[in-house]
Amino acid sequence: MANSTDAAIERTSPSRTPTTKKKNELRRRRPHPSPCRRLIGGRYPGPSLPDVTPKAAALPERLVRLFIGLVLFGAGIGLQVQSELGLPPWDVLHQGLARRTPLTIGTATIAVGVVVLLLWIPLRERPGFGTIANAIVVGLTIDATIGVVAAPEWLALRWMLMLGGIVVVAIGSGFYIGAQLGPGPRDGLMTGIARRGVSIRLARTAVEGSALIIGWLLGGTVGIGTLAFTVLIGPLVHIFLPRLEVARRSSRGRD
């Protein structure tokens, strides 16, 4: 009886083994969505994202996207500052610090970025090249934009600067987060919180709301532009990020 059972097992095993191997191979070949796409698609309410895996981007292309995004981000904030209709929440904090120290808004932005990086430690977030570049380039671009773009007198032009600045910041966020070279200090804090079950919209609103309160207490300016930025930036980033995201090459240790 034992011999017949063994023979039956030997006859059935070869037919099952290839099926199991094929299933495992199919699982390995399935593309995995990037962290940004998983966060947006799985945690953020809105229209469903198309099931399209972007082509892998080489490192030079990702670097270009990174710096385009950082410059756009800083320029958008500078436009908001010059609109004089109220600063973005983080820049209320930066302006408050600038008013109480010899720092400019741009240099205060860099200093706050370093402090925010310390908050990554309990969230176990790892900084990348883009993280360090963000902490430096954005602050420099803010000061450069303020030095080039004058504050307009007409209210209509000030509204254009304010709303345009919000859109430019959202596009810049999509570029530099989508480049996947490391989020900026503030956005890394946002995504770190989102990975623990909080929606990106709620994480951004909570983090920027806290910066707003602290900045206001320090003397930063709060206005209609502040409210518009807080309300609009989350949905706008949700629109631009999945469209500007790039895929990383699958080769280990290479880009």
Describe the 3D structure.
73% of the residues lie in helices and 0% in strands. With 255 residues, the protein is an all-alpha fold. The protein has eleven helices and no strands. The chain has one domain (60-244). The model is unreliable at 1-5, 7-18, 30-54 and 250-255 (pLDDT under 50). Helix 5 runs parallel beside helix 9, helix 9 crosses helix 10 (200-217) and helix 10 (200-217) packs antiparallel against helix 11 (224-244).
Please give a handful of descriptors for the protein shown:
255 residues; mainly alpha; 11 helices; 0% strand; globular; disordered N terminus; disordered C terminus
Radius of gyration: 24 Å
Low-confidence stretches: 1-5, 7-18, 30-54, 250-255
- The total of helices stands at 11
H and E order: HHHHHHHHHHH
For the termini, the CA-CA separation is: 59 Å
The total beta strand count reads 0
Q: Which structural class do the helices and strands define?
A: mainly alpha
Residue share in β-strands? under 5%
Task: Compose a concise summary of this entry.
With 255 residues, the chain is mostly helical. 73% of the residues lie in helices and 0% in strands. The protein has one domain (60-244).
